[in-house]
């Protein structure tokens, strides 16, 4: 999950100078905030600082990021076949060069201290943002697209799969040592639609990416119902949100993929004692052996006390020794 | 799920005269909008028009319902042991008399045309609203309560379980022929916490309610991971959201509980053809036999075209004959 962020005073210091998108697009600064959690909280890997919505932006959609209220917006969301038809599959080496430069700079500055992870949104999750245009509770427009105009939905998702595959290939080429695909909105679909409109395109991406040995982590939020299919998608590692029991997940799929997760990020609002107990509980559920990447079950939440993130990382290091 | 609502012109006509809470608290009007969907769209049962938040209000919390922006609010949310301590377990016969009167009037006006369902929020879901005070994405305060002050959380949930049980018993006594418990927020918890802070108290409610033969429907949204435990809670029927495959659910628990659900309500934004196809697909997944109450997987969404709700109900009636 994104590691840099507002909970870090050092991150906030950088953000006082530049807005969010400028930070994403300034490789030196993106590299700086990418490395902050490695130095400050001692995580075992870095994940490049960026945003999944730079891909739709690279496809020509105007992206507005406003601090505080409402989150990111596309003022002209996709609502017609003509708009989908007009979307290019962008060349990441020109349109997303800033991410690749940030990866190169980060790798250089990390100097092999820890590995660097690249990432992208899944085609379905990107399509959801592009069609809704802003935050939504009901997913009216994207669902109208898949239910009433499934051919157009597939037309859009196919383009996105190719765009995401090219983007992830370029990230690996630039130095990313693993890639992660975030399917934030897979869980709003019924199982059949998840297969048809989300997982199918994740599989497609994985088949197209030039991996060069870089493992792929697939994280589909609220998709526990399809755990076996996700594990069978070509993923090397499956990310688990906190609602899945990692012990049961290991029983089901742990012999052929690694598992990443899965402490409830809201537990970091709690006390050091409770966080340590939570970490131990997950380690115990996974049990002894290899194949577990300890992580939160989603990103660090707003207003999480910085000290508690450190408590979490230290607890993982301390207690995992006897299991991993 | 709530059947009356903004999609019905006849409901909007009533709401032009009174605000939402006044509608809940005026038995004649509540009965009128409860019966509207029976007459207009032809559903096979009515569910009393009310809101789950009348219970915290009956416990002394000020409730603000504003149309349009932001949803319901408790301006003074629960944030201390002293506040929990001060909450009474209300006598529904005085504090929630308006609901009981609405049930009596509705039963009288329905004249046994279709059965009437009463309902309540689950203790966990009510606690979430009471502690957060307003809509939330991160559930910071309720999770801080369970993780940092679990004893206080149990103190609150125990009171709520007793309040809900008394309320549901009174609804049955007033004429409700079935009851439904809505656990809207069970799915934000990990499995262990779902058991400890939500399902345990649903079980408690079910053990305390004087059912007098009225069946209990339990609906926990996004809790597919605990389907077997929910089915084993004392429920007669388990409500399924649309992310669960009803065929698999029937295999797992269908021999000892009925299943209610589970069309994605967003499908009603689509075309009549697609809605009919969706209905047939769910009927086919459940298969032939008894024990299925067809329903949406959640409430009717805002801006759903009225005609499509009718298409849905008619499709269920038409296609279910060969299965049920």
Observed structural traits:
homodimer; 324 residues; alpha/beta; TIM Barrel; 7-stranded parallel β-sheet; 15 helices; 7 strands; 50% helix; globular
Q: Would you kindly provide a written description of the structure presented here, covering whatever features stand out?
A:
2 copies of one chain form a homodimer. The first copy, chain A, has 15 helices and 7 strands. Chain A has helices at 9-15, 20-25, 27-40, 54-58, 81-86, 92-95, 97-110, 123-132, 140-148, 150-174, 191-208, 227-231, 246-253, 272-286, 306-320; strands at residues 46-47, 116-121, 178-183, 216-220, 237-239, 258-263, 292-296. Chain A has a 7-stranded parallel sheet. In chain A, helix 3 packs across helix 7, helix 8 (123-132) packs across helix 10 and helix 10 runs parallel beside helix 11 (191-208). The radius of gyration of chain A is 19 Å and the shape is globular. The two termini of chain A are 21 Å apart. In chain A, 52% of the residues are buried. The mean pLDDT of chain A is 96. The interface between A and B is medium-sized, with 34 and 35 residues.
A few lines on this structure:
Two copies of one chain form a homodimer. The first copy, chain A, is α/β, with parallel strands linked by helices and 324 residues long.
Strand segment tally of chain A: 7
- Please trace the helix and strand order of chain A, writing H or E for each element: HHHEHHHHEHHHEHEHEHEHEH
Q: Label the CATH architecture of the largest domain in chain A.
A: Alpha-Beta Barrel
Estimate the mean pLDDT confidence of chain A: 96
Please state the overall shape of chain A, judged from the principal axes of the Cα atoms.
globular
Lateral arrangement of strands in the main beta sheet of chain A: 1-2-3-4-5-6-7
Report the portion of residues of chain A in β strands: 5-15%
Which structural category do the helix and sheet elements of chain A fall into?
alpha/beta
Q: From the structure provided, what is the oligomeric state, counting identical versus distinct chains?
A: homodimer
Q: Into which percent range does the helicity of residues of chain A fall?
A: 40-55%
Intertermini distance of chain A? 21 Å
Number of domains of chain A: 2
Outline the biggest β-sheet of chain A: 7 strands, parallel
Largest two-chain interface: A-B, 34 and 35 residues
* Unreliable sequence segments of chain A: none
The top-level CATH class of the largest domain in chain A is Alpha Beta
Count of DSSP H/I helices of chain A: 15
As for the CATH topology of the largest domain in chain A, it is TIM Barrel
